[in-house]
Specification:
Blueprint lengths: L3 E3 H11 L4 E4 L6 H9 L3 E4 L3 H15 L3 E5 L3 H16 L3 E7 L15 H5 L5 E4 L6 H13 L5 E7 H5 L1 E3 H18 L9 H13 L3 E5 L1 H5 L3 H11 L3 E3 L19 H7 L2 E5 L20 E6 L2 H7 L3 E4 L2 H13 L10 H22 L8 H14 L6 E5 L2 H9 L8 E3 L9 H11 L5 E6 H5 L5 H6 L4 E7 L33 H7 L3 E5 L2 H14 L3 E6 L16
Parallel strand pairs: 2-3, 2-4, 4-5, 5-7, 6-7, 9-10, 9-11, 11-12, 12-13, 14-15, 14-16, 16-17, 17-19, 18-19
Antiparallel strand pairs: 1-8
Bound molecules: thiamine diphosphate (TPP), 2-acetamido-2-deoxy-beta-D-glucopyranose (NAG) and magnesium ion.
Protein name: 2-hydroxyacyl-CoA lyase
Organism: Trifolium subterraneum
EC number: 4.1.2.63
Length: 569
Amino acid sequence: MAEQIDGNVLAAKSLAQFGVQHMFGVVGIPVTSLATRAVSLGIRFIAFHNEQSAGYAASAYGYLTSRPGVFLTVSGPGCVHGLAGLSNAGANTWPTVMISGSSNQNDVGRGDFQELDQIEAVKPFTKFAVKATHISQIPNCVAQVLDHAVSGRPGGCYLDLPTDVLHQKVSQSEAESLLIEAKALAEKNKKNNRANVEASKIEQAISLLRHAERPLIVFGKGAAYARAEDELKKLVEKTGIPFLPTPMGKGLLPDDHSLAASAARSLAIGKCDVAVVIGARLNWLLHFGEPPKWSKDVKFILVDVSSEEIELRKPFLGIVGDAKQVLEILNKEIKDDPFCLGSTHPWVDAISKKSKENASKMEAQLAKDVVPFNFLTPMRIIRDAILEFGGSPAPVVVSEGANTMDVGRAVLVQKEPRTRLDAGTWGTMGVGLGYCIAAAVAYPDRLVVAVEGDSGYGFSAMEVETLVRYQLPVVAIVFNNGGVYGGDRRSAEEINGPHKEDPAPTSFVPNAGYHTMMEAFGGKGYLVGTPDELKSALSESFFARKPAVINVVIDPYAGSESGRLQHKN
Ligand SMILES: Cc1ncc(C[n+]2csc(CCOP(=O)(O)OP(=O)(O)O)c2C)c(N)n1
Ligand SMILES: *[C@@H]1O[C@H](CO)[C@@H](O)[C@H](O)[C@H]1NC(C)=O
Ligand SMILES: [Mg+2]
C-alpha cells in the first residue's frame, strides 16, 4: 500500500509550503502532532504557557514582519484563551491567524471533549474564518486563511481543524497534488493591495497642504506596517511640515527630528488647519478628530487602506490606499512644484518653540535623581542605557502599564521604525511578554527591552520561563509599585464594611520578588532601588543578551490613578 499521511502532517506541509516560518502556541489534543510535524519541516514552534500570550506574540510577529503571525491552540478552552490574541490583533489591525483543533464532527452537540462551536465563537473577532471539513480541503484552507490575514486591512483570521479531519489519511501522492492545486489556486486568487489611487485626490491633497497655514502630518502603526518610513521622511523634509506620530508610529521618523511635534502635541492638534493622517485611525487615541482637542475647522486628509474607515470618519478628503504607495505618489507629484515651509515659518516656529519649552521642563524633571524611585528617574536611566547601547537595528521597546507606559511613551526615544510595541488601540494589559517573544524571534539579532508596570507584567508573567527555555535576549524591567496604578489611594470612608481588612482592589503584595521568579527558571534576576543599581543591572543584562528580569522598586504613591486616563475612571 502506498504511504499515507494524516491531516496533521498535511496541515504542517501546507503551512511550510505557504511560507510560515514561525508558529506560536500551546499543544494538546488534537494538535500536538501538527506542532511536532511543523517543527520537523523547518518551522520554529514557540511553545507558550497560555494561548493569550501566544496570540499576542503571533499578532506582533505579523506587525513586525508583514507576514501573517500564526498561532496554534487546542479546542474549546484553548480556542477561548486564543480569542484574546485574535481580538487584540483585530483592534490593532495586525495580520494574525489562529489555528485550532476542534472536536469530532460526528459528535457535535453531544458534549464531546472540549467541544465548542469555534467558528461561531471567533466570528466577532475575525475577518475570515474557515473550517476544513475533509482532509482534502486543508491545503486550500491554509492558503486562504493566510491570504486573508494580510489582504486589505490586515486582521485576525481563523482556521478550524476538526479532530476527525486531522486523523483522516491520504496517500503521499494525493497529498502532493492537493498541495500543488492549492498553490496554483492561491497564485490565481492573489489579491492586489495596491489600489488605483485617484490622481485628482492626490492633486487636491497637495493643494490643501500647499495652501494650509498650519499643516500637520500625523501617522500611526498602519504606516509603520506599510513600511512607509522612507516616503514619510521625504514628505516631511520636502514640505517642512511638522509631524506627530501615534504611540506605535513613534520611530518612523526619529523622535528627535527638528520637525517632531510630539512635545507640542496640544498646540499641534489644537491649532492645525489641515492634517494629513496616514495609517492612523481617528479613534479615541486621536480624540476622534473632534473639538475641543482639535480645531472645529480642521480639514482632515485621511489616507487608509480601508474604504470603510474613510466612510466611518468622513474626512474632508479621503484617499484609499496603501500608506507607502500613496506617499510615493504624493512625493512624486510635489516634486514638480516644490514647497517647503522652512524653519522661520510662523507655524513651524511656534511648534518648535513649544516643543523646546516642554522638552526642557521635562529634562529638568528628569535630571533629578529621586529615591525612592518615582517613574521619571528610572525611566531616564533606561532611556539613556538604550541610547547608549545603540546598535543598528536599534533595540525593540515593549511597554505596558498605566503610569509606566505613559511616562515611558514620553521619555523613551524611538529612532527607528517598528521599535515600539505597547498596549495599543485597546490598551490591553498582558501583551508585553508575548510581544517580547515575537520581537526576539522575528529579529534574532536585536535586543528587546520591556518596560512594564507590575500589573501589566503580571498578566503573563509565567512566560518568563518561555524566555529562558528559548534563551531569548529579552530584558524585562518591572516597575514595581505594588499594584494597579500603585498604592492604596482609598479615602477613609471608602475603607469600610466587613472586608475593610482586605487589601485595596488596586493593591498587590508589597515588594513582590519578581526577580526571584525569573531566577526560579534559571534566568537572571536583579532587584534595584537606586540609580547605580539600575545602571549596573541594565548594562550587565543588555550586554549579556540573555533573558533577565529587573525588579525596580518604585514609590507606591509616585503615580496617579489610571495614569493619563484619569478622566475615564
Ligand atoms: C486586559 C486588561 N485588563 C485590565 C485592564 C485595566 N488596566 C488598565 S492599566 C492596568 C494596570 C496598571 O497597573 P501597572 O501595570 O502596574 O501600571 P502602573 O500605573 O502601576 O505603572 C489595568 C489592570 C486593561 N487595560 N486590560
Ligand atoms: C509635552 O511633551 C510630552 C512628551 O512628548 C507630551 O506627551 C505632552 O502632550 C506635551 N505637552 C503638551 C502641552 O503638548
Ligand atoms: Mg503598578
